[in-house]
Amino acid sequence: MPVDAEIQCLLDALKGAPPMESLSVEALRASVPVPPLAARPKVRATEDVLIPGAPPIPARVYRPIELQSDGLVIFLHGGGFVVGSLETHDHVCRDLCRRAGIVVLAVDYRLAPEAKFPAAVDDSLNAARWALRNAVGLSVNQGNIIIAGDSAGGNLAAVTAIRLRDEGEPLRGQLLIYPVTDYHTPGTASYFEHASGYSLTRAAMIRFWREYLANEEGATHVYAAPLRASDLGNLPPAFVMTAELDPLRDEGEAFARRLADAGVAVMLKRYDGMIHGFFRMAPVSERASAAIDDAVAWMHQVLR
Q: Which of the residues 151, 190, 199, 285 is marked catalytic?
């Protein structure tokens, strides 16, 4: 299917821009657009907090105008483990909070290359543990917590779900939005079919992995590549969202199949005509906005 017309307009606007893999880390981070506050969805309140840790983990709590659930969504932003922040995904968290009527906790985990693997993994786990132990203070139900993330954040969400299962503290669900699930050399079919021309490139992913991992051994660790985990059973229900024109499409769908084979309740949906990052494009794409509605509907189904 051709690129969605609204998404194609965004791609046209990016023509001539230097490829992500050619930019310095600083320039790459500065290139990520942040919508003005006035254009972001309205919520009742936000609160910036510091989750105890070494170092403390910045986070932001979003509270909806109309509360529809006593649950909580822990959201881990994407950005190849190298870019992204509370601000780059603020509009996404606000939109989920507003549409679902649920409290959202966004986590600002440490980034590579300053903090290599497993720093982001450990921050994500510690944030989830904190949320579970502080459910009363957050005014949410400890048994109704979903972990979510896009791209690299989807990787961290999946890994956190696995680690919490192993600790005997299972979550209610996992929303994995075009997740990174494996380290590839040279890569899946979609890595080559959509290697360039659709925002995220194969070359950029190779660069992100190089920045993220401290050594080659990390590439096969299940906390970096959850698709390689030997046991994916007894995990919370999952909604895996993939994009047709995304280099990461095949690994996300392979992870969904592995979950289903392990007996996990899985909803897998591929969004035709869409590219990596589309979940952040709801303000300018009807299909992206509809995908957020799909995520909200799934959350309401899995929450008690």
A: 151
